[in-house]
Give the backbone structure.
Amino acid sequence: MAPTEVSSTEVSAPALDGQYGIAEHSHVGARDLNLDTHSHRIGSRDPQDHLVPLGREEQWRFTPLRRIRGLHDQTPLTGTDFTVTVNAPAGVVAHSVSGDEANALKGASNYLPTDRPSARAWAASDSVFLVDVPANLEVDGLIEITFHGGSVDEAVAAHLVVRLGTHAKAQVSVVYEGSSTLAENVEIVVADGAHLDIASRQSWSADAVHLSHHHVRVGRDAIVRHAALTFGGDLVRIVATVEYDGPGGDAELLGLYIADAGQHLEHRLLMDHGAPNCRSRALYKGALQGQGAHTVWVGDVLIRPTAEGTDTYEMNRNLLLTEGARADSIPNLEIETGEIAGAGHASATGKFDDEQLFYLLSRGIPEAAARRLVVRGFFGEVLARLGIPAVVESTNEIIEGELEISGI
Amino acid sequence: MSTLQIRDLHVSVVTEDTPKEILRGVNLTINGGETHAVMGPNGSGKSTLAYSLAGHPKYEITSGEVLLDGEDVLAMSVDERARAGLFLAMQYPVEVPGVSMSNFLRSAATAVRGEAPPIRKWVKEVKGAMTDLEIDPAFAERSVNEGFSGGEKKRHEILQLSLLAPKIAVLDETDSGLDVDALRIVSEGVNRYKAQSAEAGNGVGILLITHYTRILRYIQPDFVHVFAAGKIVESGGPELADELETNGYVRFTGAGASA
């Protein structure tokens, strides 16, 4: 794929002492996350601690706020028109809890909301949906959760907690479908030595708006493979953050998205390395087709002074299948220790490569089939790493269906 | 037996400002079973001839015609030309990340043959063809040409030649960048396909484009053509290659420049 001018890349300089700018002020019930210099993220459960974004903030500058139906402002999050269905193998707790139990579960991942929609969803969700895998249980079979939205009219708040005990092993698929205006927090807690593969597939109807914050807490020597697979919805914005409890944690964040005409699909990542000898990988690939299709990928990696021996690499690739689409891709790497094992990133956005196409055509392969081969190959790298066969299969079907839209 | 007829072919390369004429009236007829070597100095337009025949969009045909068994090749799309029986072994085979060689070969064979080859027979066929060209079976699962050495890429071009079984094969500087061992393996591959196609009664016509005479020691041409300044300036038998070996292209580039 040939890189073109469409991709944008900004790399922040290493932070200097005293330049965080947020060390001086305090918030009741809040703590400073001391994150990257230009984003000024503050964690707080109280929506009042978060200003209403105006659209110029670094975190919001790509998001068309007029399309998010006031989720960032004060639209009531009182909607109840949705269903959650679960299919969980024996031994796994998967149910909705409320009251004190729900409140106690919130924050299980150490997460504190870093923006207003997240804080509002936190405060407004009366119940928490919990998936709990006890220590030492290796779950046989896929844990499947489906959120089906019934209407976009009344906005919904949701809170999901996925928790794996020590040395547990599980695969989780979360699917979003139907119509909804949803603000959500997803907390993922993977205890020491546990192994979780989790895929969140956004297969919404065309009118859905979905703002979600996924926070992953990686235990000592734990392994997490997290995938965001985003196809549907008018506007989907997923912020995924990762923190490490202890050394040896390994997090791989995968993403695959296809934006059609008019869709805004935004994925933001933060790999927050605070523990030594941990590993992070990000691999996000997207295709865009149609007028006004817009994708945003922002990948932040922070390596704190305590995170010696960190090994991190992040990559985003976008394939523009038609004219009129726009992909923004911004990797940021902030390194505060010289003792790292490796850190790098790559970002490229390109059109269909004419020489590749010519080569395939010159072997007799018809153009539509040749394009399909290249797109399948493009996404194949992500699919090969998902590790959940049923999710790979359903994703493949969706990709085939999406490609038919532009006659590929 | 097939026939490829190239008649008074004029081709320009489309650049940003003005089109530049590269081919200035090429005439050549290749019959099935014949091997024609087209030799010429760098920049004479040899590769343009190869890409024009395959239909690369960068080249604009301004006049002339190309007929394959009487069918108008220039009216066909790139993939139609391949399915009609024209094959181009490229000087610089393209890397296609994410598409496995085995998937690519099967897609191409399915398109060219008009139906998917039965899987068992196909696996055996590919394996045999790879063994013939001393290609490690592990290459089947690698992305098309990605990270291949020059020699590995050329072997895979000839692998495609043998699996797609064209009527006319254009080999564009297949010998460039090969060491003696690789040159021998690749040449034997071409000769093997040539013999097989002749046995089957559809002897392949070969257009062998090269800068050097070295490959002609392995692949015996029936005709040698000297290419200079966008057209064929002299044609002869294999002895013409010997003269080029001794004297180089000076006589022809001089003639081309003054013509």
User: Anything to note?
Assistant: Confidence is low (pLDDT under 50) at residues 1-40 of chain A. Residues 367-386 of chain A form the longest helix (20 residues).
